[in-house]
Amino acid sequence: MSWLDSLRGSDAEPSEASFPLGARIKGAVTIDALSFRLAGDAYGFACPEGPQIIEAVGTIDLGDGALLHRLYLTDDAFLQIASTNGSVGDTTLFVYVDSTNPTDQAAFRAWVEEGSLLGASTFAFGGNTYQRVWGEGPDVRWTPPVVFDEKVYKHDARTMDYDLTLYSMLYERSVDAAERNELLLIAAEDSGPNTYCISYALGVPLTRADFEIT
């Protein structure tokens, strides 16, 4: 059983669409995998194949009308949709590739405090080096992780099932054999009490032509 199983509801029924692009819990997302196949093993993750059921939806309020919606999919992946005042902007596919569980609060704090790996100007992962995207320029050795409060919905769009706090940092690297940079999103997740997880997700930006929501 993957850690993402905790997001899923075993008896959830389809709910009325109230998420971007007509997404709904127990709806489906299909990614056009052709560009990933053409790239071979250039990326550090595999594109989810076939229709992916939307098992849960997370929402993050960025303020001033800006929102992130995360459609959590069957194969340990999520489609992130950014919007501002209802207008859809960037869409990104992320696939979870690894996770660790800090044993206690002190171990978790070591991931988010000043000078930690999370927020460093570069991050080595999977044999590749990624450059920090968020925060100050590369000459700044460390930038605080960005804190998000995420509300998760597993059954319908009206009733939140739980929330969690994410200390996140985004990195990227260029991929010679592909048209898009590969992103690395690291999140230190505090689900409390005494429940912590460090997740690593690799992904790429998508265009509206790259996926379909049904």
Structure in words:
With 214 residues, this protein is mainly beta. It has one domain (3-213). Helices cover 6% and strands 46% of the residues. The chain has an eight-stranded antiparallel beta barrel.
Summarize the model shown.
This protein has 214 residues and is mainly beta. The protein contains two helices and twelve strands, in the order βαββββαβββββββ.
Spatial extent as radius of gyration = 17 Å
Helix content bin: under 10%
Shape: globular
Secondary structure: number of strands: 12
Q: Which consecutive residue ranges, at least 5 long each, have pLDDT under 50?
A: 1-17
- The CA-CA distance between the termini, in Å, is 26 Å
What amount of the residues lies in strands? over 45%
Q: What's the domain count?
A: 1
Average per-residue pLDDT, rounded, comes to 91
Structural class: mainly beta
Q: Give the helix tally.
A: 2
Strand order of the largest sheet: 2-3-4-5-11-10-9-8
Main sheet, how many strands, which sense, barrel?
A: 8 strands, antiparallel, barrel
Question: What is the chain-wise order of helices and strands?
Answer: EHEEEEHEEEEEEE
Task: Write out key terms for the chains shown.
single chain, 214 residues, mainly beta, 8-stranded antiparallel beta barrel, 12 strands, disordered N terminus
What's the SSE blueprint?
Elements: E1 28-31, H1 34-38, E2 52-63, E3 66-73, E4 77-84, E5 87-100, H2 105-112, E6 122-125, E7 128-132, E8 146-153, E9 162-173, E10 182-190, E11 196-206, E12 211-213
